[in-house]
Write a structure and sequence with these properties.
single chain, about 130 residues, mainly beta, Immunoglobulin-like, five-stranded mixed sheet, four-stranded antiparallel sheet
Length: about 130
């Protein structure tokens, strides 16, 4: 299931530049994905996103992540404004060997953790070798 090719990382500037889509500003969250024998685990940095403002869906072989960020300091006079407000959006193609009925997720301290369990047929099987 795992493709061992090395993925090229985006430069820091590419990852923090907002993208204008659907009439709003969307950021691409930084993500780590790792694999064990039983599952894939996705960790996404979503600063300012509350768990109730997350929309996480699995549709047609894609995992769609959309986190909404509420505007900060509305009505206040800003002296310095380095924090851009915008939503987060990311989509991932998911292999059919993931058991979509058992996907689970939790968000704590701005980090989303998604567990993508493998189906039984996708898990590695140990084969016993008998001496003859």
């Amino acid at each position: 299931m795992a493709d061992n090719t090395t993925l090229t990382q985006k430069s820091r500037a590419e990852q923090t530049t907002p993208e204008s889509t659907w009439g709003g500003t969307y950021f691409t969250p930084r993500v780590d994905i790792f694999e064990t024998a039983d599952e894939l685990t996705l960790l996404a940095d979503l600063p300012g996103v509350r768990s109730e403002d997350l929309d996480l869906r699995y549709e047609n072989g894609e995992l769609l992540l959309h986190g909404k960020v509420a505007p900060r300091h509305s009505g206040a006079q800003m002296w310095l404004n380095e924090y851009e407000v915008g939503d987060f959006y990311r989509a991932f193609s998911i292999n059919e060997s993931i058991d979509s009925s058992r996907i689970s997720a939790a968000c704590k301290n701005g980090v989303l953790t998604v567990h993508l369990p493998k189906t039984e047929r996708a898990k590695p099987k140990q084969i016993a070798v008998k001496a003859t």
